From TrEMBL:
Keywords: Hydrolase. GO terms for molecular function: nucleoside triphosphate diphosphatase activity. The keyword Hydrolase applies. The keyword Hydrolase applies. Belongs to the HAM1 NTPase family. GO terms for biological process: nucleoside triphosphate catabolic process. It comes from Halococcus saccharolyticus DSM 5350. One of its GO terms (cellular component) is cytoplasm. This is Ham1 protein / nucleoside-triphosphatase. CDD domains: HAM1 (cd00515).
């Protein structure tokens, strides 16, 4: 059994489109303060595995706006709750140049941990750089001493496998009554997420794209 650390049944339903045997795990892992989705998801997956002693996946996602230097990014939920999506849209409009045309992206990172060893995948997020080192608890000396350490292993815990999904679009005036969060101000191919049906949204979802990558790897594993 694979456990998806979430209380959102919609996420579990989406995951079941790519995975045969997955169920929700209600576990309040420590959500560290970080500018990287990788750091947050990887730490959460390792902590959830230690709690459940079963294979787990944790996701972290956010809206990254080009004109705001990637803000709100990992802080998307907090910013939505405190200032609202319309304020983010106005700020993006004020800060962007004409050449950027409101460009933005929804990003999601899926982190998997089962306590066993595994090799690194070719996914771009799974690489031996400072971001991955931070996610896997490697300190600066360890990182510089082993440039090939890209499998997520560390002395303080088991390896974590990382998979990223991205959907690109642009920030617009709010449109549509569906979806949730930033969906009304995020337009993809001329339609905001809030104007899409659930089927249409899931077909291009950043979480779905990350789950598809993970599902392919997991079935082979």
């Amino acid at each position: 059994m694979l456990r998806y650390v979430t209380t959102n049944e919609g996420k579990v339903a989406e995951a079941r489109e790519y995975l045969d045997d997955v169920s929700a795990l209600d576990f309040d892992y420590t959500e560290i303060q970080s500018d990287s989705l990788v750091d947050i998801a990887a730490r959460g997956a390792r902590e959830a595995h230690a709690h459940a002693d079963e294979p787990v996946i944790v996701d972290d996602a956010g809206l990254f706006v080009d004109s705001l230097g990637g803000f709100p990014g990992p802080y998307s939920a907090y910013v939505e709750d405190t200032v609202g999506i319309e304020a983010v849209g106005r700020l993006a409009e004020r800060e962007r140049g004409n050449e950027e045309d409101g460009r933005a992206a929804f990003r999601c990172v899926i982190a998997y941990c089962d306590g066993e060893e595994f090799a690194a995948s070719p996914d771009p997020v799974d690489r031996g750089d400072r971001v991955t080192a931070a996610a896997t608890d490697l300190d600066e000396d360890e990182e510089s001493g082993d440039e090939d350490a890209d499998d997520g292993s560390s002395p303080s815990g088991p390896p974590v496998k990382l998979f990223e999904g991205v959907v690109r679009g642009r920030i617009v005036e709010p449109r549509g009554d569906g979806g949730f969060g930033y969906d009304p101000i995020f337009e993809h191919d001329g339609t905001t997420m809030a104007e899409m049906s659930t089927v249409e949204k899931n077909a291009i979802s950043h979480r779905g794209r990350a789950l598809a990558k993970f599902g392919e790897w997991y079935h082979e594993r």
